[in-house]
Amino acid sequence: MTRARYSNIFYGYLFLLPYLVLFCAFILLPLIYGLGLSLFQWEVLSNAPPRFIGLGNYREALGETYFWMALGATLRFVAMIVPSVVCGALLIALALNALPEKSGGFFKAAIFAPTIISISVAGILWRWFFSAEFGLFNAWLAPLGVKVPWITENRWAMKSVVLMTVWWTLGGPMVVLLAGLKQIPEQYYEAASIDGAGAIRRFFHITLPLLKPVLLFVIVMNIIGSFQVFGQTFMITRGGPELSTRVLVQYIYETAFASYRLGYGSAMSWLLFIVIAVFSILQFRLVRERE
Amino acid sequence: MFCIRKLTTFISLILLILFISLLANCGKSTGIKPSRKVVIRFWNGFTGPDGRTILRLVKRFNRENPDVQVLMQRMDWGVYYNKLFVAGLGGRAPEVFIVHASSMERFIQAQVARPVDDLVRGANGIQESDFAENIWQAVEKDGRHYALPLDVHPIGMYYNKKLFREAGIVDEKGNPKPPTNREEFLDALTKITKDIDGDGKNDQWGYVFTWYRTNMYTFLLQWGGRIFTPDYQKCVLDSAENVEAVRFFTDLIHKKKVIPPPENFDSWIGFRQGKVGIAFEGIYMLEDLKRQKDLDYGAAPLPLLGKVPAAWADSHTICFKKDLSGEHLDAAWRFAKYLSDNSLDWADGGQIPARKSLMESERFKGMTAQWEFAKMIPYIRYIPRVPFALEFLGEFDTAAERGLRGNVSAETALSEAAANVNKIIKRQNEEQKRSKP
């Protein structure tokens, strides 16, 4: 019996091994290496050997305008994208759930399709859509006499990126929520109808409570993912106008791979990690209390 | 029971072996058979139409030189520079690689590239006097030249002939007449800019800003401005001439409204759509226009808008790995010289060769736009060659953008950028001091 158990454990780890090796080599080790790096002043361009400066990089980041601008842009993005995607996905999932299986399939595929497109392609496409003078959206709006400065005005640019991101990422959460909706037993609704509950009451008293675990999962994953936004802003606005959409990951990328300030870049990555960790812990606390 | 156990053991062993052999295989390069040929790896960032041109040249070279095998690898410029720099630091740079003259400094400083003076002056060399002086100077440091310039690509004036004719900007023979100075430029702006669809807003423009960097850099220099002090120890981006140049354009954009709010690269689409009279863009955009059959465009040198003629330019240059020797060095140089000797084929796709003898050839005179843009070579200006070029350009781009958009004054935009660049200089100097014990 014990032998069998040991061999079970052995095979468990054996099958985990390929992923474990990759995880250690490409995620865990770089992570630890980066933590060490963040304590050094290391400028590849200067030929000078790395120098230990303790928390100097962290101090520099916290005192730098660009860092706070980038963090602010990231927070603005998260604050706008998470409610938009979650509400949008929920509404569409509800609508699709109400449709018969056959016609629902087409819409499901259509809404999921953008998720498959690579960000470089989607980004280039939407940059053309958004172009103020010569773009597609403004060509459509021209008959109405409206000209939206999609990505040329600071107050519009981030909203446009959010709009594009909703289109690009809505499919994933929608599929998860739809699966969640399908699991809610039909009897509850029937019983509620017989008791005279309308559609709105049914939604708030049956759908929402039963969907909560799925919904919370979608929200948490969305927030974590949104903090790491990079591709959309990099492709569409390049961080502009006037750096108003330069998010933290882009700034880290530029610091580490354009300025070759590896220590400073690592320090900012760890600061971002701390921000995400704090948010995640708060959310998990919240979930556990509710449950 | 026993049987199943045995089977699972067997399967997992096979999986393990497969996995290990997969890992072991990662290190090896596959597909290249060993031969007695000298293999030259050649890296560059030519991923556009220029990539096809260079591939043709590489193939031709391989055919004509059976003892050498050039293996070319192309990557997007951004990715390319990262990869090349890291490979260079680790001593694994390719034998031959392309670097822009403006990015050269860090490759010299990191000792990735090798001086070429001995090769150029050697038996199979090239006359130094064949290079235009400022192009040859762009690859020089402390008396040594670190690359073989392949081409030079300045920005110049593309203009829409149809819009010029419609606006009546023509010479005696009725041919469109591109502007050559500030008055003619402003005249073209006011005549071409107008509201076509009658909604009260202009939708046809005399000129648009395309790439802020090349356009603004040109204008600052035309106004007589400087970016750095001659010793590169101080950034003077906020000098009076520079502020005046930025103001000149913000006035045209925001007060006179004859230039649309800048949109960087995307405005180039407007020129291709025939809604824009003039754009100052690189000779490398020519390929784009050639494919646009319905666009009647012309090419001319930039007009003199400020006091001093100037035009932004850069060069693709051919560099060699630091520690090349023997047959590899010989093969690498033969390949580089072949590219240089045949750079008219390269120029055909929208470049200007770096060598005077080729620029004076009949074939080059037949390349209309290239020939027009080449007239600016005496006064082309490269981006200041500092080791922190990428950081500097980030600040420069931001300053140009903020200045032109007019949310802050030209002084603020330029002086904040100058202060940031000076901080970078200070940091670099401190690090530099530490590296020299």
Tell me about this structure:
The complex is a heterodimer of chains A (291) and B (437). Chain A is mainly α and 291 residues long. Chain A has one domain (58-290): MetI-like fold (Orthogonal Bundle), CATH 1.10.3720. Chain A has helices at residues 2-37, 56-62, 65-98, 101-116, 119-130, 136-141, 154-169, 171-182, 186-194, 199-227, 231-236, 248-257, 262-290, and strands spanning 40-41, 51-52. In chain A, helix 3 crosses helix 8 (171-182), helix 3 (65-98) packs antiparallel against helix 10 and helix 8 (171-182) runs antiparallel to helix 10 (199-227). Chain B folds into 2 domains: 33-152 and 315-378, D-Maltodextrin-Binding Protein, domain 2 (3-Layer(aba) Sandwich); 154-313 and 384-435, Periplasmic binding protein-like II (D-Maltodextrin-Binding Protein, domain 2, 3-Layer(aba) Sandwich), CATH 3.40.190. The interface between A and B is large, with 39 and 44 residues.
Structural class call of chain B reads: alpha/beta
CATH architecture tag of the largest domain in chain B? 3-Layer(aba) Sandwich
Task: Based on Cα principal axes, name the global outline of chain A.
Answer: globular
Radius of gyration of chain B: 26 Å
What sequence of helices (H) and strands (E) makes up the elements of chain A? HEEHHHHHHHHHHHH
- Largest sheet entry of chain B: 7 strands, mixed
Find the count of extended strands of chain A (DSSP E, 2+ residues): 2
Strand proportion of chain A: under 5%
Helix content of chain A: over 70%
Structural domain tally of chain B: 2
CATH domain fold name of the largest domain in chain B = D-Maltodextrin-Binding Protein, domain 2
Concise description?
With 291 residues, chain A is mainly α. Chain A has helices at residues 2-37, 56-62, 65-98, 101-116, 119-130, 136-141, 154-169, 171-182, 186-194, 199-227, 231-236, 248-257, 262-290; strands at residues 40-41, 51-52. Chain A contains 13 helices and 2 strands.
